[in-house]
Amino acid sequence: MLEKIKLERFTAFEKLEIGFSLGINIFVGENGTGKTHILKALYSACDISKTQQGLAEKLNRVYLPSKNQIGRLVKRSPVSSKGFVEVWRKTLEGEKIRIRLNLSSHTKTPEKATESGTPKQWREHPVESVYIPVKDMMANAPGFRSLYSLRNIHFEEVYADIIDRAFLGTLKGPIDASRKQLLAILQKSMDGKVITKNEEFFLKNKQGELEFTLLAEGLRKLALLWVLIQNGTLTNGSILFWDEPETNLNPKLMETVVEILIELQRMGVQIFLTTHDYVILKEFDLQTKAEDKIRYHSLYRDQEIGEIKVTSTDNYLNISPNAIDDTFGLLVEREIKQSMEGGQNDT
């Protein structure tokens, strides 16, 4: 499981260190505070433990800097600058290992960036991970994998990766009771289960088979969760990264999504997600129990120095600053003010 990340002069960050919960980690903050950048860095480090790629190469494919010049991931400065990203995790045997990528603003190719830490041990202890991006790719799956492998198309590799995870075959042996329960919850919410034919996804129920191009995007999110649980991608010891799960999802379905995520955490899945949504935050607050492992990370820009900082807490009420809660409160105040002004005009 991932323990912490350290960033120095990397993308939007001057210097940042974040320690993680072994359960659920929720990143909040205004636009431009680097929430997605953190998820992408963590996912890249996890993915290479299985693919055996270089970390620099994976970061290049995930971030897509202009002309593939990885040095552009160094925080912009009028003078030459150096930076690094470093990720720590604990193996199943309890050994602490880390991988660090050092690069400068003049580093043009991934081969020129250098890895340090314990990169050999990092790859000797692979971890299953999956990144769910904001944009849905399930409806675009037919032909995309072959196109991506044969042509240089401008897509962040997380989109190709999620399709690959969705097409994985099921694990051998019977499905355990915990996964069966989660699949049943999702099937009830989306009224069916997912099948594939010739690289196309369909939602199958009593009415027939509905292709994903005709399925609401919010339901596709539930369907993707169903697939990842059903094929064993999300199981004990795996790591899920999910960028803004609330996108295109009706607030009524948030309860189901949060219920599934909490249960996955109880099964031993470590979870990292970003959100701008009050409902999803409140659902976590209402549904988690004392024994659940959850940590909120609030990213913000320090007004004095202009750099991104972070505060972390295990208590929803202690999130500070909380741009989501503050904005919701301002809306309530505006509504009250408007209704009072309307009442005065009526008299």
Major sheet: order of its strands? 7-11-12-3-13-14
The number of helices is: 10
Strand content: 25-35%
Label the overall shape.
Answer: globular
Structural write-up:
The structure is a single chain. The chain is of the alpha/beta class and 347 residues long. The chain folds into 2 domains: 2-128 and 237-346, 3-Layer(aba) Sandwich (Rossmann fold), CATH 3.40.50; 139-234, no CATH class. It contains 10 helices and 14 strands. It has helices at residues 35-51, 55-63, 119-124, 144-150, 157-166, 177-190, 217-230, 251-266, 278-287, 323-346, and strands spanning 2-10, 13-19, 24-29, 82-90, 96-104, 114-117, 129-132, 193-197, 200-205, 208-211, 239-243, 270-274, 294-301, 308-313. The protein has a 6-stranded mixed beta sheet. Strands 2-1-4-5-6 form a 5-stranded antiparallel beta sheet. Helix 6 (177-190) runs antiparallel to helix 8 (251-266) and helix 8 (251-266) packs across helix 9. The longest helix has 24 residues, at 323-346. 37% of the residues are buried.
